[in-house]
Amino acid sequence: MLRTCRVLYSQGGPSAGSWQPLNFDGGAFHLKGTGELTRALLVLRLCAWPPLVTHGLALQAWSRRLLGSRISGVLLRASLYGQFVAGETAEEVRSCVQQLKTLGLGPLLAVPTEEEPDSAAKTSEAWYEGNLSAMLRCVDLSRGLLDTPGPSGNNLMQLKMTALASTRLCKELTSWVRRPGASLELSPERLAEAMDSGQNLQVSCLNAEQNRHLQAALSRLHQVAQHAQAQHVRLLVDAEYTSLNPALSLLVATLALRWNRPGDGGPWVWNTYQAYLKNTYERLQRDVEAARRAGLTFGVKLVRGAYLDKERAVARLQGTEDPTQPDYEATSRSYSRCLELMLTQVSHHGPMCHLMVASHNEESVHQATKRMWELGIPLNGPVCFGQLLGMCDHISLALGQAGYAVYKSIPYGSLEEVIPYLIRRAQENRSVLQGARRERELLSQELRRRLLGGGLKVHH
C-alpha cells in the first residue's frame, strides 16, 4: 500500500530534470508597491533596534501620553500595525487576504490573546469563554476568507492553547506528565472520553478548582475542534514554553484521538515542534510512530523556536539543565533532521502526514524544496510553507510565484489588543528580527533601483 502511495505521489510530483533552486534575491519584490517596500524597510530597521523591542510597551504608553491616543494610533497604524497586522474588522482582514492571494500566498489567522497570570480579569473563566467565542469567530472568518480552500487545499488557523486553558493548569499537568510512570488518569484516552461525554472529570493530582477548569478547558477545545472540522479549517496549535509544552502535547493528543482519525479528511489538529529544543527530534520520532500505531493522521508545524532567551534564563534561575541547543548551528542541524524525517514520512504515507515548513531561513527552505523534488512530493501535496506577515517576503513571494503553498501568519484585532501582542512576539523573536539583515538589504536595493532606475523592472 505504501509503495502504491509513493508511486502516485511520484507521478504527481515535479517534472523530470535537474532541480533548480529558487532565487531569494528579492526579484519577486516587483509584485509590491513602493510604499509597501518603504514601510517594510523602515519597520524592519526599527525592529532590529534592541531598545525599541525591550522597552516597547513602555514606549507605547509614553507615546500615548505625549501625543495622545489618536495621533499615537495613527503612527502605529502607519508603521508596526500596518506592517504586521491584517486589520481590525472582517472587511480589513478580507482586503489583506485578497492582496496576499494575488501574490500566491494564503492566510494563517491568529487571534492575539495574552494571558496575564497576575490579572484576575485575564485568568477568570469568563475571560477563557470570551477567548472561545473569539476562536470560533476566527474559524468562521478563516473559512469565509477565500472562495476556494487555500493554495494547498487547506484553510488554516493558529490555536493558542493557553487562551482556553490556564498556564497554571498546564504547569500542574506538565509536572505530573513528566514524572516516571505518570498516572493513567492523565492519558489522552481518558481525557478524550471525558471531552466527548462531557461527564465530570476527577484527576487526583488536581484540586477541585483545577478539575473544574480542566473540564471547562476540554469542553472549549472540543467546541473549537468540532466547529473547525465542520468548517474545513485545520487548527495549528502554537508551541509555548517548555514548562507548558508537555501539557499542551497531552491536550493535542487528546484532540487528535477524536479529530485526526483517517477517513475524516484530517489531520484537523496539528502540533508545533521547536527545533531549538534538544529533545525535539526524539519527541517527533516518538509522536510519528505513536500516530502510525494508532492509525491517526498526523500534522506538524516545524519551527526553530522563539523563547530562547527566556528558556535559558529560567534554567539558570532554577538550576536545571538548559533545554535548548547550544548554538544556532546546532539548532539548524536539529531543524534539518526534523525536516528530513517529516518529508520522508510525507513521501511514504501521503495524505496521512501533513507538514508546514515554518521557517525564515533560506537554507531550510532550499532543503525542503529540493527534498520535495527528490522524493516526488507535488507542490499541491500535504507540504506547505509558513512565514510571518510583514517579514521574509523575499522568500514567501518567490515560493508563491513558483507554485508552492505558502501561508502568512496573520494576527488581527484592535490596536489595544494587537500592539502588546506584537511587542511580546518581537521580544520572543529577537533573533529573527535582528537576523533580517538580508531582507533589509534586498529592500534597500529594490528601492534604490526604483528611485534611480526609473520604474519597475519587467519580469518575464
TrEMBL record:
Residues 183-434 form the Proline dehydrogenase domain. GO terms for cellular component: mitochondrion. InterPro entries: FAD-linked_oxidoreductase-like, Proline_DH_dom, Proline_oxidase. Gene3D superfamilies: 3.20.20.220. The keyword Chaperone does not apply. Its EC number is 1.5.5.2. Its cofactor is FAD. GO terms for biological process: L-proline catabolic process to L-glutamate. It holds the Pfam family Pro_dh. It comes from the Eukaryota. GO terms for molecular function: FAD binding; proline dehydrogenase activity. Keywords: FAD, Flavoprotein, Oxidoreductase, Proline metabolism. It catalyses: trans-4-hydroxy-L-proline + a quinone = (3R,5S)-1-pyrroline-3-hydroxy-5-carboxylate + a quinol + H(+); L-proline + a quinone = (S)-1-pyrroline-5-carboxylate + a quinol + H(+). It is an enzyme of class 1 (oxidoreductase). Coiled coil: none annotated. Converts proline to delta-1-pyrroline-5-carboxylate. PANTHER family: HYDROXYPROLINE DEHYDROGENASE, PROLINE OXIDASE. Belongs to the proline oxidase family. This is Proline dehydrogenase. It comes from Otolemur garnettii (Small-eared galago).
